[in-house]
Write a structure and sequence with these properties.
The protein is an all-alpha fold. The protein has one domain. The protein has 10 helices and 2 strands. Strands 1-2 form a two-stranded parallel sheet. It is globular.
Length: 224
């Protein structure tokens, strides 16, 4: 049991635990509050473009789409454990971006028509499962792209990781951007919106020194 606690303390420092819990809570609320409200709205906007209509669906990219969740977990832990200062800056920008995204999703609800899926193998089964569990709403900005972009942006300047690590995150984030298009979960404006919202979150958090609030939270009970 002691060895587990040592590993847990090494993996996620105490200062990072509350901020990471807050990230999970904000992600859940900022995504599902608009999602729940959109199911009762009739003013959904169609923002699909000719480019999106012309792009083929490439089913194998559904695995990149799913692996994005692994990217977020791994990258967020690595980023926040680099240092208390880096953790607070990262989390303040991440939380701010999700709040911005939520207000956009509420003010400008979007949707589009996805092609039907015929289940014939594992790939199509996974895609059908994603389609069923995630309706084509809450599209602009893409929360998938916001989170993956933060994996890249937060990895820049890490002191405990080699420099190439950030570029690996950047490359995988590009694959995630491609996946949301090629499995027909989003349209390209959703990607642009996701990156823009992430950058706005970082900018606002720095302008208003929101990292101080995260710092108080991380220092509330014990110091790592």
């Amino acid at each position: 049991m002691k060895s587990f606690h040592r590993f847990y303390d090494w993996l996620i420092p105490r200062y990072a635990r509350k901020p990471l819990v807050l990230v999970i809570v904000f992600n859940f609320l900022c995504y599902y509050i608009p999602k729940a409200l959109e199911s009762h709205r009739s003013d959904l906007h169609m923002i699909s473009t000719r480019l999106d209509d012309a792009l083929p669906r490439i089913p194998v990219f559904i695995f990149i789409y799913v692996l994005a969740y692994v990217q977020w977990i791994v990258a967020y832990i690595i980023i926040t454990r680099d240092s208390r200062e880096h953790c607070c800056r990262f989390v303040s920008g991440e939380l701010t971006s999700k709040v911005i995204a939520m207000f956009i999703l509420l003010a400008y609800p979007t949707t589009f028509v996805r092609p039907p899926v015929e289940v014939t193998n594992l790939t199509s089964w996974v895609m059908a499962f994603i389609y069923k569990s995630d309706t084509p709403t809450n599209l602009f900005p893409s929360m998938h792209c916001v989170a993956s972009w933060f994996c890249f942006r937060g990895s820049l300047g890490l002191k405990k990781m080699p420099k190439w690590y950030a570029w690996v995150q950047g490359f995988f984030s590009l694959l995630v951007f491609a996946s949301v298009l090629l499995v027909k979960q989003h349209v390209w404006p959703d990607i642009v919106g996701g990156i823009a919202v992430a950058e706005l979150g970082i900018l606002f958090a720095r302008l208003f020194h929101l990292e101080r609030a995260v710092e108080k939270l991380s220092s509330a009970r014990s110091r790592a």
